[in-house]
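Posting for a labmate who doesn't have an account.
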Amino acid sequence: MPNMEDLTRKLYKASNTRQMSMMDLLGSFKRQGTTRVTDLHLKVGRPPCYRVDGNLKMTSADPMDHATMEALARTLLDDLQMKTLEEVRSVNASRLIEGLRFRLNAFYTHRGLSMAIRALDTTLPSVEFVDFPNKVWQDIVNLSQGLVLVTGSTGAGKSTTIASLVNHIARHRECHIITLEDPIEYEFESDIALISQRAVGRDVPSYEQGLRDCLREDPDVIFVGEMTDAESTMWTLAAAETGHLVFSGIHTRDATGTVTRIVDMFPPNRADEVANQLALGLRYIISQKLVQRHDEFGRIAAMEILNNTYSVGNLIRQMKPEQVYSLMQTHTRDESSQRMCTMERALANLVNVGKVARHEAERVCNHPQVFEDEMNKF
């Protein structure tokens, strides 16, 4: 396992007068805070590059060569991970370093080795920190079964939102929670819940195998890091159908697109079967985007919420996800039978209270005309 001596070794010649270690490169996360600096990109032939307030910022340092990149990778990856990287050409890992957890992916491109490193605060997020647009989180944490999906692009905060819900359940319910993650991002603790966290690739070979195991391990709550393909999606849906509360993430931009994406993972002859499974097992879809704040530095989550009511379930079963959006526009009362919210309404609310600038909301919304209509209601 890499140690502090490796991390502090000056391996990178950033300029004629400056040598840097991996710790030096990671230092920006602490100096500016992980809410502002979220990612570090290291790549052969380019200088280090940070994502600050959602935008990539190239440093003025010298480009990295092959030897430097490999040496820096070895400060974060153990021998098994380096072997996996060499054989599979990519590897996921996480490291706890001086109070911050770093999630990283090392991979090869046509130019050579690259790494994408994301910083995560080790403090478990609360539902108050996530700042849900209504009281939907209260309904979700009280569920005993069904599927809750949190969707969005890479870096949209899906893991943080799910972690806040799982953390709340762990602290308030006597239950068995099993997580399958690649890699583990937050370490859950509780005096009343039994928590089993498994890292894909280390503790279990795949999501599919982990889900098969789960059904024999007496779980109450299951957290599947991502539904990556038809096989893992099938087992995730099966777990939700068999009396478990299941959380998972998927890379889609909105709630209706999520329904279409899941059905499209399977061959056409299974579409009706999968749509029926989803209509029965789904409870909520939360689609989110991280938006640049106007009132202070950092970003805030804008959330679209779909509650799988009887009417929504019928539309999913009939393969009419395009009609779901209109229900999300009208079923908005803050009560458990509704609590839906479109992305456009969520953004308009954030603009109205001064947290997000109007031009930023216009840039990220899915339906510009609907956003204009929502703004005209204030």
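Reply:
Got it, the structure tokens are right above this. The chain has a mean pLDDT of 93.
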